[in-house]
Amino acid sequence: MISHKSCSTFIILAAVALLASSCSSPFETGVLAALPVDGEPTPSDWLEAVPLDLEVWKGNSHVRPEIVALDSETSHRSTVQCHHGPSGSDPVSVRLQALYSPSRIFILAQWEDPTMDEDLGTWEWRGDGWASHSDADDGIALLWGPEGGEVFRCQNTCHMVDVDVYDGGTQMQMRMIHTGEGILDLWRWRAGVTGPYDAADDMVIDGTGKRGDEDQVLPARDRSEHETDPEYFREGMGARSPMPSYLPEPPRGNEADVRARAGWKKGRWKVLFSRALETGDTADRSFVPGDSVPFSLGVFDNTWAEHHVADSGLTLRLVERPDAGKKQGRDPYEPLDF
To answer: Tell me, which fold does domain 8-318 have in CATH?
Structure first.
């Protein structure tokens, strides 16, 4: 579980959202303006941060079904995804704000989610064998586009690598692959995987697919050699006690470059990303005052198969101040208390 140390920051951020909603961005549609600050952003700094409001589409939305009399219509309403597919979901509203200090970039993401999902599935004994739940966690991913500033969407990286044809139809295998030059920088925050460690998974996408900066696989699966039962945590738990399907561990090395504090309250996630403007890792995108960086995002709701994505290309613009580079404020990382 993600710890929630106090309610004070939620009140502050609620005030930020209310005040910010009363003003519109002076920048063109799809531009996230990062304003400069002297050090660790304060609540008053966030009050001045320009909001970018957008909607993401096409994924599954996890909503607990109503508890009503069981009949055919109830069954239909509570399994709308099975009947109509992911397009039956409403769009999800997302708000982004950004600030940067002399050494770090800060991105605050907020989005609507009626359920807080942090589970990663559980192995259970079903009488004649083990089975794992399909439960997943919530999350958000930011994908930084290639150099050059052209319009970019994460859909550009989605490619079909295989297709199976069988009696009931076809099944396509998709993979995120970058077909252009170089690599793409991916920040992936997951409530049940990186959330407990106040971190995001710093990843790359290249011509072979998606991987962590340290080639770390998060989370590791808890499976036997034949993947039919759990391998770990047997001792002391009983031979047929419920056991985890995945084994969370913190990102390490260059894969831990991105920090992320998060909290969920009243149907809304808030995630504060932070990373050094320049990490020294060739797998990471650098952020330079005055630059415009193309990016895209996806929001995940109790699933990592179907996700809501931004349909249009987005741009992060690091707005310079007249005396940029002259002020040298303190810059410890003391994230907002979620």
So the answer is: Immunoglobulin-like (2.60.40)
